[in-house]
Sequence to fold (338 residues):
Amino acid sequence: MDALPRDVLPWFDLGDRAGIPIVTLEPEPRPTLRDAVAPGAGRISVEEHFKRIRNGMRQPFPSMVRLLKKYQGQTLVIVGGGASLQDTFKTIRRDLRVSNKIKVLAPNKSHDFLLSKGFIPGKELHFGVLLDPMDWVATYQTPQRGVKYLLGSTIADVTWNRFIKAGSDGYVWHPYGGVKEPGTDLTEHQVAKNEFPNKEAIFIPGPSTVGLRSVCIGINLGFTHFELHGFDSCFTADRLYAYDKPRIDGTWKAFDVSWTQTAPDGDTMEFTANRMMARQVYEWIDLCKYIVKLADDGKITRPSFAVHGWGAIPWLAAKAGMHADPAVNAKYAIRGTS
Fold:
């Protein structure tokens, strides 16, 4: 079979990074992982979701609408918390030295991990992102001058208060769930528009984890190339994170099991993860398909990606020639055969 032309690949534009012919089959995993780990229902109820939308609209920060397309054509480095980040974070600083068109975004505790490695707020760390509604998330990020904080409206009051008291440069966005409010039958957009007619609001759809949702945020901000670090989505070197993180969820150990992910060519990878990280693996495939459809429909500029490190998502990325290391792509990418 001859390699498919690059303009019809059902993945992303690989730019000059790939350099090899690739045939990508329909990127659906076998049902084992998706069936075993159902889509997330969220940590809060639908009723609480709408309550927090209203609460987010009342916060003293402006809407993230003000940042839309501000970074058109630039590169966004999204720093996940996977263990491989320990091996790759130095390349972020190296890349920042050679271009002023690169911005760094850190969800959750990756923010303070970068600070611990000496990253300079405003120069080497540009965005912090939070979404999780639990109270303990208030301790995840230490507010810094020079950093823009993109705060999902689902965060708890204790988290809002931390950034308010710090006088942070915060911006509000809302995670779009595609649900209606019980009792009123109003959509999320209708609640914001009807009850807060003089305030701007933006709803961002996307995967269940703040790391992958940050890709959707970046697209809205205008970024067209994405470098992903620490998106292992599994245990590597007997660690799930690059940093220390308490196992708050009492059922965590029950989720530390092996899963199997199937690539488009039928190759499989076994990995160990909790359910949230296992779900993120197939959500990465869903996100790829979603973004490609948006680009094909002319709604966005098709972005390019380079995934660093190793794990379940970097392996899938390598299958599509999207790993940051050309040698890894050469080893794993799906090739056309004659």
Remarks:
- The longest strand covers residues 169-175.
- The chain has one domain: 45-240+251-328.
- Residues 1-31, 248-255 have pLDDT under 50 and may be disordered.
